[in-house]
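Appendix C. Worked example: SMI1/KNR4 family protein
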Amino acid sequence: MDETEQLLEQVARRVRGFGPEGGTLVPGPLPAPLDPDAVRRAEGILGFALTPLLAGLYTRIADGGFGPEYGLLPLEAAVRQYTAMRASDWGWPEGVLPITDYGCAMLGCVDCRSETAQVLLFEPNPGDPDLAWYADSPALADWLRGWLDGTAWFCDDSEGADLEMAPWAEFRSRV
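Step 2, the predicted output written as structure tokens:
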């Protein structure tokens, strides 16, 4: 079993019987996993492929609803948000898919063009696109592990809550 398979198994174990105590603010049952064809259709609209780990979350675990804060966005909602933001004045970077809503307009996003599926934080509250992007985690796998073990900055028990993230240096080159 490779690293992606192991991580998908850990996430599946975590979300069995999922509810508010399972690490999300979203109550109720999870949506069904997506059919791989739904992922391919979404990729056709986006113009880029999801990373294997991200596609596995959607096709093997659920179509969103689990994960940090308000949980992973359903894939269709993530595609709509990406498309809308690409057309907005924010200069949304190509290949950066919003995957979770932290509240207060902040989004967790996966750079699908990054070899490691780097996770970025979009924090638009300063009102300036050049000040809105931060490197959250070097890899989606690390971000998920931080959620699973409670050490990520967004976890209630995390000691990294005061962590200062570095600005995402690639922002301007990707718009």
